[in-house]
């Protein structure tokens, strides 16, 4: 079975400017986070996936076919980061119109169902010009899911949403992935991506930095010591005890906290567990297991 989305050594130039370079990856069913700073190439990548741009080199395939074929494009749902509407239309009318342009049957029924799923039932028949930014974002998201697309391309889908809206949309994205949809979510906000999914595609300056789960990407960086914070009643005694442990490269005491630089965290945790009661250890916290630390390290490299 062909993957939902596949890039095979894809590059795209804008005249002399390189947008993305030699990118290869696959998105099967489930949610993948596309992470990169502004200007990294995320929007170019999404436009290529949607068939809105041609690749200069390489091939883009959606379920085994070109995304520029109408039959294939009908399987793609897009939530763009561009905020453009006909302001005098209602939310329901706009989504219905978009679905009809795409040739979707029962467009008004599907538009209604999608807007209700985004908790817009009380405002779907008022003009978009009076919507808040969060409501406008919900309407764009409703358009992406209303056609029951198999591949969803979501560009900064949480922009403008309040905390309740963010929670609802994150949950819906996860449910779509669990239902078998292929979902690619683009963001430059690390915490957003980490909240939505553990599967990542990290890009920087148009190139892929890393691909996989946060944990798998982090374990690939074995040349860099892991940072682990320890809190204990007797910090000096604990430091003296663990400085000689195998794999411990150094220790720092900062504001009443002990920070160890270690190679093998599993072995280190086992050692601290065995001696913790002797020094009153109250907490052992990995400082660089999160997405932000991984991304910062990769970019600096």
Descriptive account of the structure:
- This protein has 301 residues and is an alpha/beta fold.
- The protein folds into 2 domains: 5-216, Rossmann fold (3-Layer(aba) Sandwich), CATH 3.40.50.300; 226-300, Alpha-Beta Plaits (2-Layer Sandwich).
- Helices cover 37% and strands 29% of the residues.
- The chain contains 11 helices and 13 strands.
- A 6-stranded mixed sheet has the order 5-6-7-3-8-9, with helices on both faces. The protein has a 4-stranded antiparallel sheet with strand order 11-12-10-13, with helices on one face. Strands 2-1-4 form a 3-stranded antiparallel sheet.
- Helix 3 runs parallel beside helix 5 (133-146).
- The radius of gyration is 23 Å and the shape is elongated.
